[in-house]
Write a structure and sequence with these properties.
This protein is of the alpha/beta class. About 55% of the residues lie in helices and about 15% in strands. The protein contains six helices and five strands, in the order H-H-H-E-H-E-H-E-E-H-E. The longest helix is centred in the first third of the chain and has 25 residues. The radius of gyration is 23 Å and the shape is elongated.
């Protein structure tokens, strides 16, 4: 029984380090800690097992989850079709991405740019987003939600740069745009 528990500890440790999402990693660490508590019981150390269960499994997990909840991600969907890519559009995208990075650093946000070729309506309906950038040939339009206070602030920030972009709010009953 002890050998199986120790093998599971190694597996959970690897899973916690190798997983792609922080939330899963926290769950794996919680289960790892709970299994450690069980191993301490098997080693005839109930006082250590109780401490590990309370501190490692419970308190540490709660602290990690609260910290993760405070982690702010600024998700940008960048729509640029392969057929519309040119040298000028690459430079324009690069400039806009640099501006978005600067804005994110200024606001202490983690920038997550997702390249997509989906329609705006599909993104609005199916995915969480902060802004959507529609890049058609050499024109960029940025769409955002009125309830997102970062949108207006971002537009003001972009206006201080030399990038020329249009901006609009996403209205869910606008038909073809969505």
């Amino acid at each position: 029984m002890l050998e199986i528990s120790l093998i599971l500890l190694v597996i959970l440790a690897i899973l916690a380090v190798q997983t792609n999402t922080l939330r899963r990693s926290i769950v794996y660490l919680c289960v790892f800690s709970l299994l450690c508590s069980f191993c301490y019981l098997l080693y005839q150390a109930p006082d250590v097992a109780i401490a590990e269960a309370v501190i490692g499994s419970t308190l540490a997990t709660i602290i990690f989850l609260v910290a993760l909840n405070k982690y702010k991600v600024f998700r940008v969907y960048y729509i640029l079709k392969e057929s519309e890519i040119s040298t000028e559009s690459k430079h324009l995208k690069s400039d806009l991405c640099k501006t978005l990075e600067d804005y994110s650093l200024k606001k202490e946000l983690e920038l997550d740019i997702v390249s997509s070729d989906q329609k705006i309506g599909e993104i609005v309906k199916d995915y969480p987003y902060d802004i959507i950038v529609l890049h058609k040939y050499n024109k960029i339009t940025i769409y955002g939600d009125k309830s997102n206070y970062h949108f207006d602030d971002l537009i003001d920030y972009i206006k201080t740069t030399s990038i020329d972009v249009k901006h609009d709010y996403i209205i869910e009953d606008e038909g073809d745009m969505l």
